[in-house]
Amino acid sequence: MGFKRLLASMGAGGASVETELTEVNVVPGGVVQGEVRIQGGSVDQQIEGLSVGLQARVEVEGQDQETKQDIEFTKLRIGGAFQVQAGAVHVVPFGLEIPWETPITMFAGQHLHGMNIGVTTELEIARALDSGDLDPINVHPLPAQEAILDAFGQLGFSFRSADMERGHIRGTRQRLPFYQEIEFHPPQQYRGLNQVELSFVADDREMDVVLEMDKKAGLFSEGSDSYRAFKVGLHNFQETDWAAYLNQWLAQVGGQRNWL
């Protein structure tokens, strides 16, 4: 038995954890529900705690290179100390709130390439290696976010890519240590633009919408970036024609090449 306990403390023959999500499709401000199943190993073990959280794979810039980093941006403790008997199964249900700022990973039924967000599970075992689990979720846009995304489609913009970057967008309500950028390729009528990057920073009432417009270089000028930001209410967004609203700025910045 002593040898088995030694192996369990090294992760061999110890308790294992598996998480099952009731529904993988969620929205910011919603709740992801599921249950954690703890399977006892070959010996009795003392569990110090159990928690679930949300994790994102984020780009980090530094020293002229980009690296990927897994950041856990919310965490919920769902169990205190208890003992799991050898071979026994413990089931712990949970409901984990999705922060309003959580980046979207889905739009129009398609997964946005480059977006990786999932539910993490951490089992704290006394005198043993922590056992963990990661289960991907699909974060769909809020109705107000969908209205903005639809407006880009109405104007002829096409989705190019999306990423999450560590850092903060100045002047917004951002609290998470990273933000999302959704990149669009402009249609011909905005021939002065290379691309447009869109960011949402939401809370439970409204959201900041930030546009970064990359202007093409002209004959006697270099390319430049132009920024615009505005607020959108989550409950009264239907009152605005967003395609017309966005076109005012986009046409002003990218309607023609900056030749002079």
Number of DSSP helical runs: 3
Low-confidence stretches: 1-12, 217-223
Total DSSP E strands: 17
* Percent in strands: over 45%
Order of helices and strands: HEEEEEEEEEEEEHEEEEEH
What structural category do the secondary elements indicate? mainly beta
Q: Please give the share of residues in helix.
A: 10-25%
Tell me, what's the shape? Answer: elongated
State mean pLDDT (0 to 100 scale): 86
Amino- and carboxy-terminal Cα gap: 82 Å
- Summarize the main sheet: 5 strands, antiparallel
Which radius of gyration do the C-alpha atoms yield? 23 Å
Question: Which terms would index this structure?
Answer:
260 residues; mainly beta; 5-stranded antiparallel beta sheet; 17 strands; elongated
Task: Write up what this structure looks like.
By secondary structure, the chain is mainly beta. The chain is built from three helices and 17 strands. The protein has helices at 2-9, 143-154, 242-254; strands at residues 16-21, 25-26, 31-39, 45-62, 65-79, 82-84, 89-97, 106-107, 110-111, 117-125, 131-136, 138-139, 158-166, 178-185, 193-202, 206-215, 224-233. Strands 4, 5, 6, 10 and 11 form a five-stranded antiparallel β-sheet that branches. Strand 10 (117-125) and strand 11 (131-136) form a beta hairpin. Helix 2 (143-154) packs across helix 3. The chain is elongated. 31% of the residues are buried. Residues 1-12 and 217-223 have low confidence and may be disordered.
Sum this structure up briefly.
The protein has 3 helices and 17 strands. The chain is mainly beta and 260 residues long.
